[in-house]
Amino acid sequence: MFATVGWIENVLNEVAPAETAESYDNVGAIIGRRDAEVTKILVALDCTLDVVREAKELGAELIVTHHPLLFHPRKNLLEEDAEGRILCEMVRSHLSLIAAHTNLDQTELSGSASCARLLGLQNVRKETNYLFLGEFEKPVKAEALEGKIARALSFPVRCYGDGGSLISTLAIAGGADDGDWQEAKALGAQALLTGEVRHHNALAASMSDFVLFDGGHYGTEAPLVPFLAEYLQKRLNDVQCNVRVYPSQCAPFGSV
Ligand SMILES: [Zn+2]
């Protein structure tokens, strides 16, 4: 049995239905051909030029990413900007792209759920579309948790709030979701881990005895890549489909 881009799009739809994505989003098959045969898939957070090169070296026909290309409509396809170069190179190389973005954010394969797994949280549950909560075995001081999160994510983390606060329930909203802190507090969490914490939210949260951890947009979403690759490989193995799935080794910001 051989797989096609369209067939793998359906496999992804089973775990993260495209119709659950936000209306502004761009998910599913975006570049290439749905009837193209696939023997190797490269999974990445972003479809950068480095990721395209890595896919070509591997001999992959399909790239699956979290963040879509063509998120903003284009009026030309010139190689004068970064996205234009990537799009042209993908077309020249007969590469296809599928993205699972806000639809994936709502599932057990989201950046949030992946971070919860890496942190060893218990009783992990999805409380709203994008907010996951879980408990630590014993309460941990925010100042100690900052280092624990940084080690789990392999990424720098900044703690906003009282470092002496005891955290037993942590909310997680991977990516750019710091506006969810009030909802997280109302749901019983003492802290929220997200990326891209804005000053006004950090200030308001800390004045409400709530702690915000900024693990970076990349730091809180990159953990989903190996879990998504593992899911795809397992699904393909289950139907005895001879496709290899590789998590990308590219880090867009070097060795931060
Ligand atoms: Zn994101």
Question: Summed up, what is this model?
Answer:
The protein is an alpha/beta fold. It has 9 helices and 13 strands.
Detailed description of the structure:
There is one protein chain. The protein is built from nine helices and 13 strands. The radius of gyration is 19 Å and the shape is elongated. 34% of the residues lie in helices and 25% in strands. By secondary structure, the protein is α/β, with parallel strands linked by helices. The chain folds into two domains: 3-105 and 224-247, 3-Layer(aba) Sandwich (Udp-n-acetylmuramoylalanyl-d-glutamate--2,6- Diaminopimelate Ligase, Chain: A, domain 1), CATH 3.40.1390.30; 108-215, NIF3 (NGG1p interacting factor 3)-like (Udp-n-acetylmuramoylalanyl-d-glutamate--2,6- Diaminopimelate Ligase, Chain: A, domain 1, 3-Layer(aba) Sandwich). Strand 11, helix 7 and strand 12 (211-214) form a beta-alpha-beta unit. The strands form three sheets. Strands 7-8-10-11-12-9 form a six-stranded mixed β-sheet. A five-stranded mixed β-sheet has the order 2-6-5-4-13, sandwiched between helices. Strands 1-3 form a two-stranded antiparallel sheet. It binds zinc ion.
The CATH superfamily title of the largest domain: NIF3 (NGG1p interacting factor 3)-like
Written as H for each helix and E for each strand, in order along the chain, the element string is EHEEEHEHEHEEHEEHEHEHHE
- The total number of structural domains is 2
Write out the distinct hetero groups bound to the structure: zinc ion
Classification by helices and strands: alpha/beta
Biggest sheet character: 6 strands, mixed
Using the CA coordinates, give the radius of gyration.
19 Å
CATH class of the largest domain: Alpha Beta
Basic shape: elongated
- Helical element count? 9
Mean pLDDT: 96
Instruction: Give helix % range.
Output: 25-40%
CATH topology of the largest domain: Udp-n-acetylmuramoylalanyl-d-glutamate--2,6- Diaminopimelate Ligase, Chain: A, domain 1
Tell me the number of strands. Answer: 13
Spatial order of the strands forming the largest sheet: 7-8-10-11-12-9
